[in-house]
Structure formats: C-alpha cells, structure tokens
Amino acid sequence: MTTASARTGGQILIDQLRLHGVEHVFCVPGESYLAALDALHDSPIEVTICRQEGGAAMMAEAAGKLTGAPGICFVTRGPGATNASPGIHVASQDSTPMILFVGQIDRSMREREAFQELDYRAVFGSMTKWTTEIDDPARIPELVSRAFHVATSGRPGPVVVALPEDMLTATASVPDARRYTVAESMPAAEDLARLGEMLQRSERPLVLAGGSRWDQAAVDALVSLSARFALPVAVSFRRQSLFPASHPNFIGDLGVGANPKLVEYAASTDLVLLLGGRLSELPSQSYTLFGIPNPKQTFVHVHPGAEELGRVYQPDLAFNVAPGSFLRAASTLAPAQAPDRSALLQEVRANYIGWSETPAEVPGTFNLGRVICALRDRLPKDALFANGAGNFATWVHRFHRFERTGTQLAPTSGSMGYGVPAGVAAARLDRSRPVIVVAGDGDFLMNGQEFATAVQYGLPVIVIVVDNSMYGTIRMHQEREYPRRVVGTELRNPDFSAYATAFGGHGERVERTEDFMPAFERAFASGKPAIIHCITDQQALTPGRSLDQIRHEAEQRLRG
Fold first, then answer.
1. 286: nearest Cα among 262, 259, 254
2. For residue 181, is it within any domain?
3. Does residue 560 carry a pLDDT above 90?
4. CA 28, CA 53: separation in Å to the nearest integer?
5. What are phi and psi of 331, to 5 degrees?
6. Alpha-carbon span 34 to 224, nearest angstrom
7. Residues 51, 74: contact at Cβ < 8 Å?
8. Residue 269 belongs to a domain with what CATH number?
9. Looking at residue 354, what is its pLDDT?
C-alpha cells in the first residue's frame, strides 16, 4: 500500500511491518510505545504477550532462526530494553536476523536523565549490526526498510530501533516503502571449478556446515554435493539440523564435548570446506583445531559476510556468498572421476555411530542419555528440540539425531534461559509438530515464567527439567580448577511438576529412567503445556565422567 494520507507514527510503523511480511510480533507492553500497540489492534499481525523482556527477545530470535526473516520484538524503554539484551546477544553471536523496537522518552526531554532514559546507540552499539532512533515519523518507512535490509544482509544479525513516545503520536503524510529484498551474490565460475579440483584430489576432506541463511533446499543441495564427491560432513556447534544424521556421510558435530575421534579427524584433514560458519571458539576447540592465521590444511571458506573472510583464518579460497546461493551454484559441480573414499567414510561414520548410539551407565537411577534415545525413537522427524545452556545439553547434542532443518533451537552464544522461550515461539509459529524443551534446573528458572505464555496460548510444549540441584557446568569447572572448593553453585529447587500445574499445565515427576516414557506419554496426551521434572544424581555430570572422576583428575594434576 502507498498512501499520502496523514497517519500517526505508530500507524506508519505497523503498516511498514505488515508490508515487509511480518506476521507475528513478541512483546512486553509499555506506555512508551502505546501508539504502536494501538495500531496493532487493527492489524492482522499476531501478537504474543510475554512475561519478561528477555523471554520476548529470545522468542523473536528463535522466530528469526526458524523463518530466516527478522524476528520482531517490542519492549519499553529503560529496564525493558536492558532486560531484552540477552536476546540481542544471542542474535548477534548466532547470526540471526532480528529487530528490537524500543520505546523511548519524549524528544523534548532528552539529555535530562528523564524517567528510564537511555542512549540506545551506546547501550546496544557493540551487540547490534545497527542501532538507531527515529526522530521524525516521516522517516519511519525509510529507516524501517533499512532495518530489515541490515538485519538480513550479509551475515544476519540484530538491529535496535528506538521510538520516541511523542514521535509515535505525531502525524505525517508519507508513502510506504517497498518490501525489503535480500541481496544475493554468486560465486565465480572459475573459483567453483578450482574448488571442484580441490575436492576431487583431497585424500582426507571435511565439510563443516554452520552459520545461518540455510533452508531445506540448501541442506538438500549439500547432501547432493557430499554424495557426488564422497565428502564427510560435520556440523558446527548447535547447528545439527543442517545435515541429516541418518545420511552415511554425516560424521557428527564439533562443539562442547565433541567426539574425540571426530576432533582427531578434523585436525588430520588435508582440506576443510567451512560452509556458512565462523569456526569460533567452541567448534574450533578453543581455537586449537586449525592453525591461525594459516591453517595447515587447504582451507576454503564460504560466508555471506565479507568481514568474516580472513578475519581469523586465512583461506586458500574464499566465497563471499550465503550457503544457499553457493550450493545452488555448486549443483553443477561433478568430479571427472568419482573419488573412492568408501573406506574413509565407513571409518569416520562408524566413529559417529559408536559415539552416539548407546549411552554409558551413569550414577543414580535416571539416565538422560537413555531418555534422549527413547525420544528419538518415539518422535517424528519434524519434532523440534530446544534447549538453553548447561551440561544437560551435551546429552541432547550427542544422542538425538536431527534429520530435518529447522528442528533445533539452541544458542551458540551459550545463553542460559533460552530453551523455554524458544520452544514457546516455535509452537506459536507452528502448532503442527511436537516441541520438546530440555532445560537444566538453573537454566529453566532463568526464563521459566514464559511457561505461563505457553498456557495462555494453549501451546502443548513439553519441558523436560533435568534437576541436579546445582549449576552443573560451573560446578564441573569448579571441581576441575579448584577441587573441593565449592562456592555459589548449590541450588534449592521448587517442585517443578507443581509449578506446571500451578500455571494450568500438566506436571510429572520422574526419578527413574524406566518411568520417563510413561510420564512423557501422559504429558503428550494431556494436550497441555507440560513439565516433566527429572531428578538426576549430582555425580552424573557428563555423559562420560562423574563429578568424583573430574575432581580426582584435577587433584592428580595439581599434585603434579
């Protein structure tokens, strides 16, 4: 729609969101942007009312991950904005398109430290691709269009737009912008030909898929490329839905608690094709996997952000292009003679299967690894798993086998409290598939209030709370570095099943592995948001080592 009739800034803003394709926004209401809320009243855009701005921002980030379009969040000024900052940080480190609209003080009150006044450019400048404030309602179409283009172009990321309260109530006669488009580049034919030669003659290649700007077509194209050139494929930290785990060329994920045999293979390769990712601290095993700045392997880097190419690793061949565009162009690549890597693929694939097939016994009566294996056998391939941060997540990453893109929501930034709001957002956008959230006890209570949002909208999200009554990851680091000197990691927890029923959901408590699936079936059958409260032994700290083993190893090391 293009119109020159007078509209309030709030109406102009919401009209821009609609023409840019926004169908859903997540918010915590505030008086600073009432005019925008009022414009939403007559808009077809769906609104999800959240319980805290951190949860709202993480929901928007999750929506950005799932759709590839900017997730939209509205929060009020001051504390509302700072509460939302964890979601901005996740979007930044996870390369997720997102736009946060923040209410702001009246323009006439600036520089007086008015009620909840903040300089948003200063507050968010280091976490966003762009932070701005709109002073004139006539510039809303221009600046909102720019926000969408910035959030989605190159390496995607978050944008923050501040909205002075009086600007939103002022009127202007201004035409709408056109819907944003994402600029795409294509690789040069000669570079693709060179890559084809590299892939054919390599003896120990590795494709490592990561980053954002993927869709199912891109994943399918990667599957085809790996088959044509007999390429082993691994995925980066928490990007496991970028390649089907059942495919014979899939060899695992490089992240926290990675398979040692996969790490060994990655270090011994002669060619690495880094496709879409940055190879940051966790997948690079604290930047030890490859040489910096010059990897010893032939290094090919494909990334949509020009600033990332050569930033850490000097590539032998670089493609400044998004994974999907690159793989579409590479669909014409075929080896002159198919490489015979059958023995290599069998070996590295067997290493993955051995690592992820059968969970080891752990102390106590509840084995999370066995539960994850039971769920992977029970759930459909399109079931979505969401999680926050904590040692509990290593069981999900190791034993669940992701088969389709868009079935994993997990913060590569390592943010606690992500799983519940991400799961709620996923169910809000698509009710047709199961959504499972796995959370630690400390992790859950960071944003557990968003369980109320799931109840409010009737979203049958199932939350598995893994309760060992401590901040387990920090306790692990504590025992490893300062054994027996435990400070600040013990927790006293509520009855999480009662928490669920208090909100109007379904609650279960499980203390034994064999009781989990019956509890899960009851939760699933209830049709309600549900919490399954699982009690685990504090010794069951990792899939492979107990707390006592970690402490003992540390004491031996310190004794020299």
1. 254
2. no
3. no
4. 6
5. -65, -20
6. 51
7. no
8. 3.40.50.1220
9. 95
